[in-house]
Amino acid sequence: MINMSFALEAALLPCLPARELQAIDRSPHPTHQIDVERHAREFMEAAKKLQLYFIGLQQEENPSEVETLRKEISAMEEELKTKSELIKRHEKLIQGWRTELKEQLGKHVTELERV
């Protein structure tokens, strides 16, 4: 972003009124000097505002380390919650299968005893 701001400033610099800049050398009137200085000052103020704007955008895009860590912790907590729920469901399934297997084993043992 900062490089973009400097590039923008470099691109806008030639936009200063060249005729008035050249007129300083030829004109004996001090008003021309004042106009050029005013234009240059306004241009530099606009360039500074743009630079501050782009720096602000960059800071918004790059959250602080604390914010980044909070987001990561929140994501990890959500992942932990999801995986804990998944583990509970699997434990219930396994418990159900154990019960079914014990029942089937009991049936098979009973059938084998009859034979």
UniProtKB/TrEMBL annotation:
Domain of life according to the entry: Eukaryota
Subcellular location(s) of the protein: Nucleus
UniProt keyword Nucleus, yes or no: yes
Keyword Coiled coil in annotation: yes
Gene Ontology biological process terms, A to Z: regulation of DNA-templated transcription
Residues forming coiled coils: 66-93
Keyword vocabulary terms for this entry: Coiled coil, Nucleus, Transcription, Transcription regulation
Pfam families, A to Z: Med28
CC per GO annotation: mediator complex
Major subcellular location class: nucleus
Family: Belongs to the Mediator complex subunit 28 family.
The protein's name: Mediator of RNA polymerase II transcription subunit 28
Organism: Coptis chinensis
